[in-house]
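May I ask for whichever protein you like with its backbone structure tokens?
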Amino acid sequence: MRGEKNTGEEKPHKRHSRAGLRLRSYFLTGIVVAAPIGITVYLTWTFIAWVDAWVKPLVPRAYNPDNYLPFSVPGFGLIVAILALTLLGFLTANLVGRTIVSWGEILLERMPLVRNLYRALKQIFATVLSQSSRSFQQVGLIEYPRRGLWALVFIATEAKGEVSVRLEEAGETMAVFLPTTPNPTSGFLLFVPVQDVILLDMTVEEAAKLVVSAGLVSPEYQSRTRQLAAAAKAEEEDAPQPEAPAQAEPDTEPQREPQDGEPQERAPEGAAEKAPARKRAPGRRRRRSREAAE
């Protein structure tokens, strides 16, 4: 009786625990779905509001829709900023725009503190935003901070200038950026020999996700390998196969029967044994017997 009472008491407890686990899983699933969407919307809205706060005061009152409408128009400052930057790039590409920019650079070069900052910022933006730049297009692994520990790095470029000359004894070197977790915008610049860098197949975006998530979000390498293998197999199947050499057709010419009075050709001994004896027609025998009697 005691055993039956215990089992009866355990059943409701198990039901409550299962219900609690289900509610917990539902709650975590909701967080996983809502958190990325909410954070993305919040960051986007914050960026738009920040740009509007900087650009809208510069727009004349006659062209600002906030002066005509009872509510503020979000994103108007961002649109104006995009149009202004596009127009500035168009004017800079012309001769007049280049002349104006060169005059501005000459003025900045004469300022002792500002010119160093301007040179550094200009070089950084020209390297990052240049269409021909190949920086941060590959990801690699290096042993850091000691042997046996591996760190993820972004391949910047080959070592150039004085650094490459001073490191000639170490061989060919390259500049890599070692990001920190969870903020990949900060890190360390390292010059590493090429033979000490292991290049990876993952993209820069996938590596950034791996750094930000502290290794929790790993790219699907096995599925990509299978896709590449399937594509290679499909290419092999689609490739034209070499044609087989044509076989010579056997000689099947019909044999001519000997006429009356012509000597018959003798067949080889082996063929005579294999081929059956030809039977003569009874009419031909009678004709030959009549000729012999005459």
